[in-house]
Amino acid sequence: MKQAQTAPSAVPFFIDTHSHLDAAEFDSDRELVHADAVAAGVGIQVVPSVSRDNFAAVAATCARYPGCLPAWGLHPMYIGVHRPEHLADLRAQIETQRPVAVGEIGLDRFVDLDYPTQEYFCIAQLKLAQEYDLPVLLHCRRANDELLKHLRRIGVRGGIAHAFNGSPQQAQEFVKLGFKLGFGGAFTWPRANNLRRLAVELPLDAIVLETDSPDIPPEWIGRGRNTPAQLPRIAATLATLRGIDVETVAQATTRNARELLGLGG
């Protein structure tokens, strides 16, 4: 695994724990998007796969752009393209290029997708993460209790509840199981009262930062394309809500991500 690029010393160092830099939305300017992120202090981006079909794109992105590290997984929103044999391909990919996590995996009850099939792939991938002693990146829309149930049964080495939007009680249960909670653009919107309350009340050592680029844009972008370079401003929003300086947020969330993902430094 190549060394992550270090941001200039005058700029706080950030880790974007969830960035789909390989996505087609960046095909026209991926080089610039990455350069802007590095200039802003985002020295590491975790780039998760969503299906077997984009393993190659994620691998190519991580090989080309310093600081981009892969996570391998089969996303619940793509169950229409997943096949049972893709789990063997996922295993092979993990063995070929060990990732920082298994992901993006999980459950989604927000959209009308075949839930038993979602569970089949989710459980199988949790078992793979357990076998290879890897953390997981969890997609968990309206399925926090269901995922917690599976996590209690299949012990994994922690992970990140990506784009967390559950209750304080659910947050505490994830933390008890060794998870960090991913905060990104969603809580920057003034009407996101539940998320903002969580952002203030959760221990800072339970939080990691993410963009989910090109998705979940922050309030200042509106409906536009999100990019990893927005992460420092997301961090500044968190700092303002908590009444602390952005350097403290950068140091804490970077430390949290490094420890969770085994990045050292």
SSE diagram, text form:
Blueprint: E1 14-16, H1 30-39, E2 42-48, H2 55-64, E3 68-72, H3 86-96, E4 101-108, H4 115-132, E5 136-141, H5 144-153, E6 159-162, H6 168-176, E7 179-183, H7 193-201, E8 207-209, H8 231-242, H9 246-261
Parallel strand pairs: 1-2, 2-3, 3-4, 4-5, 5-6, 6-7, 7-8
Structural description of this entry:
With 265 residues, this protein is α/β, with parallel strands linked by helices. The protein has one domain (14-261): Metal-dependent hydrolases (TIM Barrel), CATH 3.20.20. The chain has nine helices and eight strands. The chain has helices at residues 30-39, 55-64, 86-96, 115-132, 144-153, 168-176, 193-201, 231-242, 246-261, and strands at residues 14-16, 42-48, 68-72, 101-108, 136-141, 159-162, 179-183, 207-209. Strand 7 (179-183), helix 7 (193-201) and strand 8 form a beta-alpha-beta unit. Helix 8 (231-242) crosses helix 9 (246-261).
